[in-house]
Amino acid sequence: MPKHHVGTPSLRVRPPLGRRGLWVAGWLAAACWAAATAAVSTLPPHRTWGMSATLGYGVAALAACFLPRPRARAFSVAAAVTGAVAVPFAVLALTGGAQSEVAVIERSAALLLHHGTPYLADAQEVTDYNPYLPAMALFGIPAALLGDGTAPARLLGDARLWCALALLACLSVRAAPRTARTAPAAPTAFAVLVASPLVALPLCVSGVDLPLAGLCWLGLALAARGRPGAAGLALACACALKWTALPAVAVAAALAAHLADRRAALRCAAVCLAGTSAAILPSALLSPGAMAEQVLAFPLGLADVPTPAASPLPGRLLADLGPAGRWTGLLLLACGGAAVAVSLVTHPPRDAVAAADRLAAGLCLAFLLAPAGRFGYFALPLLLVAQARIAAPVPVPAVLPERPAPCVPPSSSPTTFPHGRAASRRSSTPWRHASPRTTSSSSPRPSRAPQRSTPPSRSR
Predict the structure, then answer these.
(1) 12, 202, 216, 344: most buried by Cβ count inside 10 Å?
(2) Are 61 and 179 in contact (CB under 8 A)?
(3) pTM (2 decimals)?
């Protein structure tokens, strides 16, 4: 007799097709990004990356669409990393193609090794200005030591390589406490993040924002793990690279205060202030005028040489109106920073992901209202949001204890024991069903006649 399924029919879930479609759509979107970069950008390094990355993302989309499921993901990620990272980085490093930031970092490292300060005393051109803080010159020390004579030396000494390694080292730190049960992050997620345009493009052409984003995430992750001193030290390293990391100190302090107390927040801020001062003070004493002009006046558009960051953002448009418009933009920038600070006090972030989102929102507001900015600056907050989702802890559910087996009454059929004996149909102790008893104080309890137990019979 055929069996019929009773009940509501279960819905058929199609995870392979859905996941495959997401992978294909993601690689196609990245390919469109790369193709637009190659077609619109006027910088040769960007066009080189765009052409190579378009091919790599296209192959990745084809692999994710047509290859079998076990091989599709691995092959598509490998194709994207090869086309968007490995090939354009090798070509640009060997041919000397890069944005001006790479040459500035490597020259600053040479000045730091020979003169003790990474700033030129008399800057005349845009490329002579160093808008970064002294710690950024450390990424150019390998190039200053190895030189650019041979191909391996150019590849290993390139500052972009060390910036990318700093980002990956910071991303390996999880935001969960040591006692929490969390699952490790999938290596595929990190590979996809590196192959995405958010990391691949700056890695190949400049790389200056990669260690900044990694150290900001490291500070937030350590604050979420209940280590405010280590978080302050990581944020001190970030603040010694660029002034852009200063909002991360307030966000990390608010997170530490919410998870622990005010003393943890003060410890985080004090360690960050001491570490940043120790990194900046030597250069500030050796060349105070050059450092103030190149680090403060040049990014704000107040130096003698105009900054090349001139994207048509609201702050830039206000600055073009004259002194009144410039001061109006700075006032709006101060009001936006005050609003973010008030939100940290009234609604502090509860975990590292919320802290990264709050920091990304503050950075976007700052880039919008700054007197000088670029559209490329928004890659930093987007990278913070993405890496927070990837490196965030994944809780593992606790294993529930096994329930004891239910008590099953003896069946009417004989049961065979391990010694070969079989139990009779009548047990020595009769099975009695439990039923609620109602006793009355007036009526006596009825007596029960003793039941004779029958010994089990032996089966042949």
Answers:
(1) 216
(2) no
(3) 0.76
